[in-house]
Design brief:
heterodimer, A: alpha/beta, 5-stranded mixed beta sheet, 32 helices, about 45% helix, B: Nonspecific Lipid-transfer Protein, Chain A, globular
């Protein structure tokens, strides 16, 4: 299977900003966008109904592979073809205009307590009818009580300690309880050859194996996998055909000329793709959307990313424009329609989780720009079209990522991305091609494949259609490790319970190395538990929740006769990301400086102050805040601790191989967890007071690093090969508006890339703007912010997360110096 | 409204104002009675088997709820072979955990209000039934 989509870079646009195209000039898109922003999310039970119905009656002796393939086909062939608006693309993720689908295999049952109240809850309500609630309560949820992935795994392993630690929430999150998802399929084969080709190839491989006779267990499993591929793909085709029939019916019904023409076109397109090869740009874009819907039939809607769409779709764009069959305006409309469709669903989040995770989208990441598989500039017309559409729409999804190769991509491209960031105030994020490609190569990815990387969800790197990365498998709270050391294996939030190993009373430690040794022991124990649980979950997926449908869009499963979950992909890994990195580093710095270098305070003094949340210890607190080294400053202790920690974590994870045969990788992106987890942690040696948010991703603690160029040099100087699961650096400028300032933004990003940084994203907002938006959210309904790797509407975020974004250091674009935080709001800062 | 209905309404309305140590016992008995007299509500436990153990952290309260054969039994004793064990700091904390319209999850974790050990889905189902009953008897079910 070849996934290559290398194309010669070609810019034919007269104006790469496409400024002549505005929302006013694209009335259809404006109408669809206005409608989208007014939509209220609704719980969608359609998939849950069909999957449950099928699985309840499925043959008990059928393999999980065949059961799940048949369930996908059963659902997709019964999925109601719906057309809610005048979008040019057919198909919907759910049965509602803005759906929060219920996936009972994962976290669906968490809304059970809310079935009667979810429509009216205070935070992010989700509409649910009484009849649907009854269906969930009576028919669907009872079936899954012992069968969802969490409870299946618990039962298989006798409620193991690693699971109990996970369920305390404050140590690590094992996200396989909620999904694997987080991946980038590649639709190139489906676009170029059609899904029917995948069916034929699987059938042919099945026939060859059967003809060989002597069917041992391995061969039988392969045969079942090939059968499962065919079944699942038949479901995909069936859904498209149903859409086609319904569009024809609606075309016949409507008297509106635009609608009639659009329905007829959609009927024609869906009769063709994705079953057969796409011939036009419209067919290709439609096929991408239909395949996105299809993979959500099987896997939960979290970071299922379409990847490098400017590369995948370029061939069709070029051919159509060369023939004169496609204008830039129509291409923009189709891309915009896809962008809006990617916003047609959201996560189903129980109210109890809103405070920890609220506001997150489904993060279907799209990646543009960078270099191609040959290392040549890959920026093309579509790159700029996608940037312009993003600039015009300013929607939460897709999460747009702009790859940037400072040796191959043009300065015009760099500055155009900077301009879009200034315009949208938040997107896209910048990814450094030079460093990211090297990171993947260091993980064993071959060079051509590494050059084809894309962003998985927030910031994690994957190779579309080649790597299956489970990039958010573990989210580990580093501050919890620190607190376990400070309290000899206990944490304030879990009281007197001995959680981690006894590593000694730190007040008896005679050197910083001894403290560091205890830190390493506690970390190894905790990360070991997280890995143990991830492995249990991984095996459980292999037993009951395979992904035959998703496997069809990867290089490897077909050749190996093996589902992704069994290691079918070319590359396999599991990601462990870390919460509280900067606070942990700064605390290590403070301990070293205060206790062992300056010897200004004993460890007992420090511990007493922490236990009192610094009340009565104002001098000590001021010393910690003002006199100890901070990550992001050019300080030897800060450099040593940040680099040592990253290296240690990397080495630790790389020694562990997952259930699919791939290595664990460490990363530093935090979604909203740094805010929620911060609210659960005691005072820290860096001067952060109890229950204050942590810094996000790999970003220095708010207000700690006053000089941006120095800070970028320090962060970029971290050993990027040790950050194989990605990093999120969040920066903020109060304003970037003039051409000169946009140029400065571009130069700043380039400088950071040249220092070795992997990722950077921006919020272009002042402290005052954000404080006002928090006070009057209704006045800022469309305010889009970057959280820690993805975009969110500010109003949807929980209070802690809003505070964290407000307090992030803002830098003056002209001077690179930190802008003073408003005096009257200083109590929001973590150390105040 | 019949006699049982009036009594249940009073019980649930009392949960909104004052929470006594008898909260759990009152709740479980209200549920048990409702299963007996309300066929709609009883539908929730048809074909449902579940063994719950509720325990206050100070050891003063231990109550079990057993669902089987369309009936609910309440026992003031430890039971074995539970599907789920719920340990709670206080009756108020448990009330908040089950009924709060605006759950303070962070505060609840910080205070270690409620620790659940076992199959969480049993807790979700229980919380649904308790909330449903509350809405039914107080006339707030839409």
């Amino acid at each position: 299977m070849s996934l290559s989509h290398t194309t010669a870079s070609k810019i034919t646009l007269n104006d790469i900003t496409l400024s002549e195209y505005t929302l006013e000039g694209l009335p259809l898109i404006k109408k669809l966008r206005d409608r989208l922003l007014k939509k209220k999310p609704e719980v969608c039970i359609e998939r849950a109904v069909h999957y449950t119905e099928y699985l309840k009656n499925a043959p008990v002796d059928a393999s999980a592979e065949l059961r799940y393939a048949n369930a996908a086909k059963y659902f997709l062939s019964r999925k109601v073809p719906l057309f809610f608006d005048d979008n040019l693309l057919a198909g919907t993720t759910g049965s509602k205009p803005f759906s929060a689908p219920v996936y009972p295999e994962w976290t669906g049952l968490t809304i059970w307590p809310e079935l009667d109240t979810i429509s009216d809850r205070e935070k992010n309500p989700l509409k649910l009818t009484r009849e649907e609630a009854e269906d969930l309560n009576r028919n669907i949820f009872p079936y899954w009580m012992e069968r969802n992935i969490l409870e299946y795994t618990r039962k298989e392993h006798g409620n193991p300690k690693c699971m109990k630690i996970f369920e305390r929430i404050v140590f690590f999150l094992a996200t396989k309880a909620g999904c694997i998802s987080h991946t980038i399929p590649c639709y190139t084969v489906a676009l170029e050859k059609g899904v029917e080709h995948i069916i034929e190839e699987a059938a042919s491989r099945e026939a060859v194996l059967k003809s060989e006779g002597d069917l041992d267990k391995e061969k039988r499993q392969k045969i079942e996998f090939f059968q499962a591929l065919q079944i699942a793909m038949e479901g995909v085709v069936a859904y498209a055909k149903n859409l086609s029939r319904e569009a024809s019916r609606l075309a016949a019904e409507t008297q509106d000329l635009f609608e009639k023409e659009n329905f007829l076109k959609m009927a024609e397109v869906c009769a063709r793709v994705p079953a057969k090869p796409a011939r036009t740009f419209r067919e290709a874009v439609s096929a991408v959307w239909l395949l996105q819907i299809a993979i959500h039939a099987e896997n939960i809607n979290m970071a299922m990313s379409p990847g490098r769409l400017d590369q995948i779709l370029y061939r069709y764009y070029r051919e159509d424009t060369d023939k004169g069959a496609l204008t830039v305006k129509t291409a923009m409309e189709l891309v915009a329609c896809l962008w809006l469709k990617l916003n047609d669903n959201t996560n189903l989040v129980p109210e109890t989780a809103e405070e920890l995770f609220g506001g997150a989208g489904t993060v279907p990441a799209v990646t543009v720009g960078g270099v191609d598989e040959n290392g040549d500039d890959a920026v093309n017309d579509l790159t700029y079209i996608m940037l312009r559409v993003t600039e015009l729409l300013k929607t939460r999804d897709p999460s747009l990522n702009a790859r940037y190769h400072y040796e191959k991509n043009s300065k015009e491209y760099r500055n155009r991305v900077a301009e879009v960031i200034a315009s949208t105030k938040s997107v896209p994020a910048f990814l450094n091609d030079v460093a990211n490609i090297e990171v993947l190569r260091a993980q064993g990815t071959n060079t051509e494949h590494a050059r084809d990387y894309a962003v998985i969800g927030c910031v994690e790197l994957g190779v579309p259609g080649r790597s299956y990365d489970a990039s958010s498998a573990i989210m580990l709270n580093l501050v919890s490790v620190l607190e376990l050391v400070l309290n000899n294996g206990k944490r304030p939030v879990t009281g007197d319970e001995q959680i981690g190993p006894v590593t000694g009373d730190p007040s008896h430690f005679e050197s910083f190395d001894q403290f560091w040794g205890a830190f390493k022991s506690q970390f190894a124990w905790l990360a070991g538990k997280a890995i143990e649980l991830n492995e249990y979950f991984g095996r459980a997926y292999q037993e009951v929740l395979p992904s035959p449908l998703l496997s069809a869009f990867f290089d490897g499963p077909m050749e190996k006769g093996k589902d992704l979950i069994f290691g079918g992909a070319t590359y396999n890994s599991s990601g462990a990301t870390h919460i509280g990195f900067a606070d942990t580093v700064d605390s290590l710095n403070a301990i070293k400086q205060a206790v062992f270098v300056d010897k200004k305070y004993s460890f007992s003094d420090l511990k007493e102050a922490l236990d009192a949340n610094f009340e009565g210890f104002e001098h000590l607190h001021a010393y910690l805040v003002n006199r100890t080294p901070k990550y992001g400053m050019d300080d030897e202790i800060a450099k040593e601790n940040s680099r040592k920690l990253i290296r240690f974590l990397h080495d630790f994870y790389q020694r562990h191989v997952n259930y699919r045969g791939g290595k664990y990788r460490s990363g530093y992106w935090t979604m909203t967890n740094h805010a929620g987890q911060g609210k659960l942690a005691g005072a820290l040696p860096n001067g952060r007071k109890a229950y204050q948010v942590f810094a996000s991703g790999i970003t220095p603690v708010s207000q700690a690093a006053g000089d941006l160029p120095t800070s970028l040099r320090m962060i970029g100087g971290l050993e990027s090969k040790c950050i194989a699961s990605g990093e999120a650096l969040n920066l903020k400028y109060p304003s970037v508006s003039t051409e000169k300032e946009i140029e400065t933004l571009g130069q700043t990003v380039e400088a950071y890339c040249r220092h070795g940084g992997l990722h950077v994203q921006f919020n272009i907002m002042s402290y005052d703007d954000l404080i006002k938006a928090k006070e009057a959210p209704d006045d800022y309904p469309e305010l889009l912010v970057r959280v820690s790797g993805y975009s969110a509407y500010f109003k949807d975020l929980n209070e802690a997360m809003k505070d964290e974004i407000i307090t992030r250091t803002a830098y003056d674009i002209k001077t690179g110096k930190a802008v003073p935080f408003p005096e009257e709001s200083k109590d929001m800062l973590s150390y105040e | 409204m019949n006699k049982e209905g009036v009594m249940l309404k009073e019980i649930f309305e009392s949960f909104d104002s004052e929470v006594t140590e008898e909260f759990l016992e009152l709740l479980l008995n209200a549920m048990r009675i409702s299963y007996m007299f309300n066929p709609d509500f009883r539908n929730n436990i048809e074909d449902f088997k579940g063994r719950y153990l509720f325990r206050s952290r100070d050891g003063k309260i231990t109550v079990a709820a057993v669902f089987e054969n369309g009936k609910m039994k309440v026992k003031e004793e430890e039971i074995g072979d539970t599907d789920i064990t719920v340990s709670f700091r206080s009756a108020k904390a448990l009330r908040e955990f089950i009924f709060s319209p605006k759950p303070d999850i962070l505060g609840s974790i910080l205070r270690q209000d409620v620790v659940v050990d076992g199959n969480f889905n049993y807790m979700y189902k229980f919380a649904f039934m308790a909330k449903r009953l509350q809405l039914m008897v107080t006339g707030r079910l839409q």
